[in-house]
Structure formats: structure tokens, C-alpha cells
Amino acid sequence: MGSVFLYEFIGTAVLVLMGDGVVANTVLKGTKSHGAGWVVITFGWGLGVFLGVIIAGPHSGAHINPAVTLGLAFTGIFSWSLVPGYIIAQLLGGFFGASVVYFYFRQHFNITEDKGTKLAVFCTSPQIQNYPSNVFCEVVGTFILIFTIFHFVDPTFSTSTLTDGQVGLGSIGALPVALLVVGIGMSLGGTTGYAINPARDLGPRFAHFIFPMKNKGDSNWAYSWVPVAGPVIGAFIAAIAYLAIGFA
Questions:
Q1: Cα atoms in the 13 Å half-sphere on the side-chain side of 16
Q2: What is the pLDDT of residues 106-126, one digit of tens each?
Q3: Which single residue of 36, 51, 147, 244 has CA 20 to 30 Å from 18?
Q4: How far is it, in rounded angstroms, from Cα 102 to Cα 118?
């Protein structure tokens, strides 16, 4: 089982490296793609998901997102005994991926003055801070992610690889999931930055907190619960909806 958790770590690390990397490439001063815009960011995150799923899919099911792990567990598709290990691996992977981004773009962080821009490389924040509205946006975005993933899962997929079943993003191929994340970002991402993944936000936020940068600013911990609570609630509602339709 150690390799299962290792691949969740690697898959999440690659996801965040590519996702935070495309944000850094777009918003930090002095990069060749500075100012490339939202479309580039959404496709970069989608391709980050693509790579993470390609790597981790055959080994762990490539959840690479605690909301996916919890959503599958809520429905009974995935064993609760594996949930803590998956989530810990995902959070550590998110932190590691963001740490690589920090060292990769360190010179560009130093010449970028705006504190909010630096924070945006690592984690999400709302355009208009209103906690109920912000949570709602994360719930809806995550609901779309998880509810769609449930319908991607191939019921004939073999569960013999893992003792408790290998079911997750890796069971359906990487491209549909990547396009799903691009679609969510383009249509719903402009309000809160569409975390839809606690590991994508919490681990990198901690990286921002511990690494030194000129004129860094704070890590906005007051908001940090929203990209955790919203996706968990969204995953739970998606699981309930999926089960309700299945029993109807």
C-alpha cells in the first residue's frame, strides 16, 4: 500500500507544480509569458491534472484531490480505511509541488512587488470576499467536478489491483478529467479561483507561509478554511445526489 500513497503524493505534486507554475509564469514579472491571461491559466491547470492522472492513475486511481477521495468514500465506492493515507499524501504532494515552484521562480518573486500577486501563485482568494458566497462558489464548482467524475467511472473497471478497489480519476483516462477542470475554470473560476481541491490550496498556502520572499505579505489564513470546507461539502452533496439518482 505504500506505493499507492507514494503515487498520490507524486500525482498531486505534479498537478500543483504545473498549476502553480502556470500562474507564476503568467502573473510574475520578468517571465516570457507575463500577462498571458486566464485562458492560459485554466488550460495550464487542466494539463496539470492530465499529467497527474497519467502518472498516478495506474497505481492509486489518481484521486489527487481530497474531495475526490471523500466523494468516493461517501458513496461506498472507496474504502474509508484508505482515506487518511490518501489525504495526507495529497496534502504533502501539494506542499512539495508548490515548494518546487517557489525555487523555480524565486528570482521572479523577488522582482514582483505586489503581495497579492505572489500569494495568488500559491493559493486561491476571492475577488469579492463574502464567506457565504465564497463557500457557495466552491461547493458548486466541486459538485460539478465530483458529480461528473461519478458518471465517468466505468462500472466494468477491475478492482483487483488494490485490496479495497482502485476507483478514481485514473479509471477513466486523463483527458476527460483535464477538460472537465478546464471547463470549470473557464465557466466558474473567476469568483474564488476555483480551488475545488483542498490539497491544491492548503499545502501551497503553507509553502507561501514558510518560504522567504521580499515584500511577501501574509498568507490569508482567515480565508484558508473556505477552499477546504467548500470542496468537502460539494463532494458530499455530489455523493448524495449520485446515490439518490442510483436508487431512484
A1: 38
A2: 999 999 999 999 999 999 999
A3: 147
A4: 10
